[in-house]
Write a structure and sequence with these properties.
- The protein starts with 7 loop residues before the first helix and ends in a 5-residue tail after the last helix.
- Strands 1, 2, 3, 4, 5 and 6 form a six-stranded parallel beta sheet that branches.
- It has helices at 8-31, 59-74, 111-115, 136-144, 146-149, 172-184, 216-239; strands at residues 45-51, 78-84, 120-128, 158-165, 189-190, 202-205.
- 39% of the residues lie in helices and 15% in strands.
- It is of the alpha/beta class.
- Helix 2 (59-74) packs across helix 7.
- Bound molecules: flavin mononucleotide (FMN).
Length: 244
Protein backbone atom coordinates (compact mmCIF):
# COMPACT_ATOMS: atom_id res chain seq x y z
CA UNK A 1 0.00 0.00 0.00
CA UNK A 2 1.27 3.44 -0.97
CA UNK A 3 1.91 5.95 1.80
CA UNK A 4 0.49 3.52 4.33
CA UNK A 5 -2.98 4.24 2.98
CA UNK A 6 -5.31 1.65 4.43
CA UNK A 7 -8.39 1.37 2.27
CA UNK A 8 -11.06 -1.24 2.88
CA UNK A 9 -10.19 -2.91 -0.44
CA UNK A 10 -6.49 -2.84 0.43
CA UNK A 11 -7.16 -4.26 3.86
CA UNK A 12 -9.28 -7.07 2.48
CA UNK A 13 -6.64 -7.71 -0.16
CA UNK A 14 -3.97 -8.06 2.48
CA UNK A 15 -6.07 -10.22 4.72
CA UNK A 16 -7.60 -12.38 2.00
CA UNK A 17 -5.27 -15.36 2.50
CA UNK A 18 -6.12 -15.46 6.18
CA UNK A 19 -9.80 -14.99 5.48
CA UNK A 20 -9.56 -17.96 3.14
CA UNK A 21 -7.69 -19.95 5.77
CA UNK A 22 -10.30 -19.10 8.34
CA UNK A 23 -12.96 -20.36 5.94
CA UNK A 24 -11.03 -23.56 5.40
CA UNK A 25 -10.60 -23.82 9.12
CA UNK A 26 -14.15 -24.88 9.79
CA UNK A 27 -13.64 -27.73 7.35
CA UNK A 28 -10.29 -28.49 8.98
CA UNK A 29 -11.86 -28.74 12.41
CA UNK A 30 -14.63 -30.92 11.10
CA UNK A 31 -12.28 -33.31 9.34
CA UNK A 32 -9.48 -33.26 11.86
CA UNK A 33 -10.29 -36.77 13.00
CA UNK A 34 -10.23 -38.12 9.44
CA UNK A 35 -6.69 -37.92 8.08
CA UNK A 36 -6.48 -37.54 4.32
CA UNK A 37 -3.98 -36.24 1.78
CA UNK A 38 -5.05 -32.65 2.38
CA UNK A 39 -5.85 -32.89 6.07
CA UNK A 40 -3.65 -31.08 8.58
CA UNK A 41 -0.93 -32.99 10.37
CA UNK A 42 -2.88 -34.51 13.21
CA UNK A 43 -0.39 -36.98 14.62
CA UNK A 44 0.69 -36.28 18.15
CA UNK A 45 -0.98 -32.95 18.81
CA UNK A 46 -1.44 -32.22 22.46
CA UNK A 47 -2.52 -29.35 24.68
CA UNK A 48 -1.47 -29.19 28.31
CA UNK A 49 -3.70 -27.47 30.82
CA UNK A 50 -1.88 -26.39 33.96
CA UNK A 51 -3.87 -25.42 37.02
CA UNK A 52 -1.89 -23.14 39.31
CA UNK A 53 -4.06 -23.16 42.42
CA UNK A 54 -2.48 -24.63 45.53
CA UNK A 55 -5.90 -26.25 46.08
CA UNK A 56 -5.93 -29.46 44.08
CA UNK A 57 -9.12 -30.19 42.14
CA UNK A 58 -10.83 -26.93 43.06
CA UNK A 59 -12.31 -24.25 40.85
CA UNK A 60 -9.21 -23.40 38.80
CA UNK A 61 -8.52 -27.03 38.08
CA UNK A 62 -12.17 -27.60 37.12
CA UNK A 63 -12.15 -24.58 34.81
CA UNK A 64 -8.99 -25.77 33.06
CA UNK A 65 -10.59 -29.22 32.65
CA UNK A 66 -13.65 -27.58 31.00
CA UNK A 67 -11.33 -25.74 28.62
CA UNK A 68 -9.55 -28.97 27.68
CA UNK A 69 -12.93 -30.65 27.07
CA UNK A 70 -13.83 -27.80 24.70
CA UNK A 71 -10.54 -28.22 22.83
CA UNK A 72 -11.23 -31.91 22.22
CA UNK A 73 -14.84 -31.16 21.27
CA UNK A 74 -13.68 -28.63 18.65
CA UNK A 75 -10.80 -30.74 17.31
CA UNK A 76 -10.97 -34.40 18.34
CA UNK A 77 -7.49 -35.02 16.93
CA UNK A 78 -5.98 -32.93 19.71
CA UNK A 79 -5.15 -34.82 22.89
CA UNK A 80 -5.25 -33.00 26.19
CA UNK A 81 -3.69 -33.47 29.59
CA UNK A 82 -4.45 -31.73 32.86
CA UNK A 83 -1.56 -30.97 35.18
CA UNK A 84 -2.84 -29.92 38.59
CA UNK A 85 -0.17 -28.15 40.61
CA UNK A 86 -2.28 -28.35 43.77
CA UNK A 87 -0.07 -29.63 46.58
CA UNK A 88 3.08 -29.24 44.47
CA UNK A 89 6.10 -27.22 45.42
CA UNK A 90 7.64 -25.03 42.73
CA UNK A 91 10.38 -22.66 43.77
CA UNK A 92 10.69 -19.60 41.56
CA UNK A 93 14.12 -18.69 42.99
CA UNK A 94 15.74 -21.47 40.97
CA UNK A 95 15.04 -19.45 37.82
CA UNK A 96 17.35 -16.78 39.20
CA UNK A 97 20.14 -19.29 39.75
CA UNK A 98 19.53 -19.84 43.46
CA UNK A 99 19.99 -23.55 44.00
CA UNK A 100 17.75 -25.54 46.28
CA UNK A 101 19.50 -26.92 49.39
CA UNK A 102 21.73 -29.87 48.52
CA UNK A 103 19.85 -33.09 47.92
CA UNK A 104 16.52 -31.32 47.54
CA UNK A 105 14.42 -31.18 44.42
CA UNK A 106 11.08 -29.48 43.84
CA UNK A 107 8.21 -30.50 41.58
CA UNK A 108 9.25 -28.56 38.49
CA UNK A 109 11.92 -30.91 37.13
CA UNK A 110 9.47 -33.72 36.21
CA UNK A 111 7.40 -31.16 34.30
CA UNK A 112 10.23 -30.19 31.97
CA UNK A 113 10.03 -33.17 29.59
CA UNK A 114 6.21 -33.03 29.70
CA UNK A 115 6.19 -29.40 28.58
CA UNK A 116 9.22 -29.56 26.29
CA UNK A 117 7.73 -32.08 23.90
CA UNK A 118 7.25 -31.51 20.17
CA UNK A 119 3.76 -32.96 20.43
CA UNK A 120 2.73 -30.16 22.78
CA UNK A 121 1.15 -27.58 20.47
CA UNK A 122 -0.53 -25.51 23.13
CA UNK A 123 -0.64 -24.69 26.82
CA UNK A 124 -3.52 -23.36 28.93
CA UNK A 125 -2.49 -21.71 32.17
CA UNK A 126 -5.18 -21.38 34.86
CA UNK A 127 -4.68 -19.33 37.99
CA UNK A 128 -6.81 -18.24 40.90
CA UNK A 129 -6.87 -14.46 41.38
CA UNK A 130 -4.83 -13.55 44.43
CA UNK A 131 -4.97 -9.88 45.38
CA UNK A 132 -5.75 -8.90 41.82
CA UNK A 133 -3.13 -11.01 40.11
CA UNK A 134 -1.91 -14.55 39.51
CA UNK A 135 -1.12 -16.89 42.39
CA UNK A 136 2.45 -17.17 43.66
CA UNK A 137 2.46 -20.75 42.41
CA UNK A 138 1.57 -19.55 38.92
CA UNK A 139 4.29 -16.89 38.97
CA UNK A 140 6.86 -19.41 40.19
CA UNK A 141 5.86 -21.78 37.39
CA UNK A 142 6.10 -19.09 34.72
CA UNK A 143 9.43 -17.89 36.10
CA UNK A 144 10.72 -21.45 35.95
CA UNK A 145 9.72 -21.48 32.27
CA UNK A 146 12.97 -19.49 31.98
CA UNK A 147 14.56 -22.86 31.33
CA UNK A 148 12.76 -22.90 27.96
CA UNK A 149 13.49 -19.29 27.12
CA UNK A 150 17.05 -19.32 25.79
CA UNK A 151 16.39 -21.90 23.11
CA UNK A 152 12.87 -20.62 22.47
CA UNK A 153 11.40 -24.04 23.18
CA UNK A 154 7.88 -22.66 23.57
CA UNK A 155 8.02 -20.32 20.58
CA UNK A 156 5.15 -20.83 18.15
CA UNK A 157 3.06 -22.89 20.54
CA UNK A 158 -0.44 -21.59 21.20
CA UNK A 159 -1.25 -20.27 24.67
CA UNK A 160 -4.32 -19.19 26.56
CA UNK A 161 -5.12 -18.25 30.14
CA UNK A 162 -7.94 -18.67 32.64
CA UNK A 163 -8.38 -16.60 35.80
CA UNK A 164 -10.74 -17.66 38.62
CA UNK A 165 -11.66 -15.05 41.20
CA UNK A 166 -14.03 -14.95 44.15
CA UNK A 167 -15.18 -11.46 43.05
CA UNK A 168 -17.10 -10.77 39.86
CA UNK A 169 -14.60 -8.07 39.00
CA UNK A 170 -11.88 -9.33 41.27
CA UNK A 171 -8.91 -8.89 38.97
CA UNK A 172 -9.49 -11.63 36.42
CA UNK A 173 -8.54 -9.44 33.46
CA UNK A 174 -5.28 -8.19 34.94
CA UNK A 175 -4.44 -11.75 35.94
CA UNK A 176 -4.96 -12.89 32.36
CA UNK A 177 -2.83 -10.09 30.97
CA UNK A 178 -0.04 -10.80 33.46
CA UNK A 179 0.02 -14.44 32.40
CA UNK A 180 -0.11 -13.39 28.75
CA UNK A 181 2.88 -11.08 29.21
CA UNK A 182 5.02 -13.89 30.55
CA UNK A 183 3.96 -16.27 27.78
CA UNK A 184 4.54 -13.64 25.10
CA UNK A 185 8.10 -13.33 26.38
CA UNK A 186 8.44 -16.95 25.31
CA UNK A 187 7.20 -16.05 21.80
CA UNK A 188 4.09 -18.11 22.34
CA UNK A 189 1.03 -17.32 20.24
CA UNK A 190 -1.34 -15.97 22.86
CA UNK A 191 -5.05 -16.15 22.09
CA UNK A 192 -8.24 -15.05 23.79
CA UNK A 193 -11.69 -16.61 23.71
CA UNK A 194 -13.58 -17.18 20.47
CA UNK A 195 -16.91 -15.51 19.65
CA UNK A 196 -19.42 -14.77 20.94
CA UNK A 197 -17.60 -13.87 24.16
CA UNK A 198 -14.42 -12.71 22.33
CA UNK A 199 -12.24 -11.24 25.03
CA UNK A 200 -8.95 -12.15 26.64
CA UNK A 201 -9.52 -15.67 27.88
CA UNK A 202 -11.40 -17.48 30.61
CA UNK A 203 -12.75 -15.21 33.33
CA UNK A 204 -14.46 -17.19 36.04
CA UNK A 205 -16.39 -15.85 39.01
CA UNK A 206 -16.23 -18.57 41.60
CA UNK A 207 -18.41 -16.63 44.02
CA UNK A 208 -21.48 -17.33 41.89
CA UNK A 209 -22.24 -20.50 43.79
CA UNK A 210 -20.76 -23.70 45.06
CA UNK A 211 -20.65 -25.13 41.56
CA UNK A 212 -18.51 -23.63 38.84
CA UNK A 213 -21.42 -24.13 36.45
CA UNK A 214 -23.36 -21.44 38.32
CA UNK A 215 -21.24 -18.86 36.50
CA UNK A 216 -22.60 -19.61 33.05
CA UNK A 217 -20.99 -16.58 31.44
CA UNK A 218 -17.57 -17.39 32.89
CA UNK A 219 -17.84 -21.00 31.84
CA UNK A 220 -18.62 -19.89 28.30
CA UNK A 221 -15.45 -17.79 28.19
CA UNK A 222 -13.52 -20.89 29.26
CA UNK A 223 -15.17 -23.06 26.60
CA UNK A 224 -14.68 -20.42 23.93
CA UNK A 225 -11.02 -20.16 24.89
CA UNK A 226 -10.71 -23.88 24.26
CA UNK A 227 -12.44 -23.52 20.91
CA UNK A 228 -10.12 -20.70 19.89
CA UNK A 229 -7.01 -22.62 20.92
CA UNK A 230 -8.18 -25.62 18.89
CA UNK A 231 -8.93 -23.40 15.88
CA UNK A 232 -5.52 -21.75 15.89
CA UNK A 233 -3.63 -25.02 16.37
CA UNK A 234 -5.48 -26.57 13.43
CA UNK A 235 -4.95 -23.44 11.34
CA UNK A 236 -1.21 -23.49 12.05
CA UNK A 237 -1.09 -27.19 11.37
CA UNK A 238 -2.73 -26.70 7.98
CA UNK A 239 -0.35 -23.87 7.18
CA UNK A 240 2.67 -25.98 8.11
CA UNK A 241 3.85 -23.90 11.04
CA UNK A 242 5.06 -22.37 13.18
CA UNK A 243 3.87 -24.99 15.68
CA UNK A 244 3.16 -27.68 13.04
C1 LIG B 1 -4.63 -14.94 49.17
C2 LIG B 1 -5.92 -14.83 48.41
C3 LIG B 1 -6.20 -13.67 47.73
C4 LIG B 1 -7.36 -13.56 46.98
N1 LIG B 1 -7.57 -12.42 46.28
C5 LIG B 1 -8.62 -12.34 45.45
C6 LIG B 1 -8.81 -11.19 44.62
O1 LIG B 1 -8.03 -10.25 44.62
N2 LIG B 1 -9.87 -11.17 43.80
C7 LIG B 1 -10.77 -12.19 43.74
O2 LIG B 1 -11.71 -12.13 42.96
N3 LIG B 1 -10.63 -13.30 44.52
C8 LIG B 1 -9.58 -13.40 45.36
N4 LIG B 1 -9.39 -14.53 46.11
C9 LIG B 1 -10.36 -15.64 45.98
C10 LIG B 1 -9.88 -16.70 45.00
O3 LIG B 1 -9.45 -16.14 43.80
C11 LIG B 1 -11.01 -17.66 44.68
O4 LIG B 1 -11.49 -18.26 45.87
C12 LIG B 1 -10.60 -18.73 43.69
O5 LIG B 1 -11.75 -19.39 43.25
C13 LIG B 1 -9.68 -19.77 44.29
O6 LIG B 1 -9.35 -20.72 43.30
P1 LIG B 1 -9.29 -22.30 43.64
O7 LIG B 1 -10.67 -22.70 44.09
O8 LIG B 1 -8.89 -22.94 42.39
O9 LIG B 1 -8.28 -22.45 44.71
C14 LIG B 1 -8.26 -14.65 46.92
C15 LIG B 1 -7.99 -15.82 47.64
C16 LIG B 1 -6.83 -15.91 48.36
C17 LIG B 1 -6.54 -17.20 49.11
Amino acid sequence: MDNCELTRRGFLGHTAPWAASAGALAAGLATAAEPSGTAPTTVGMKVLGISCSPRKGKTTSQAVAHCLDAIRAAAPAIETELIDLGGKNINGCVAAGIDLPEGQQDDFLPLIPQIDSPTVRGIVIGSPVYFGNMSGLCKSLLDRFYVFHKEKKLAGKVAGAIACGGGRNGGQELTLRSIHTSLMSQQMIVVGDAPPTSHWGGTVWTGAGAELAADEFGLNTVKNLGKRIAEIIMLLSRAGGPSA
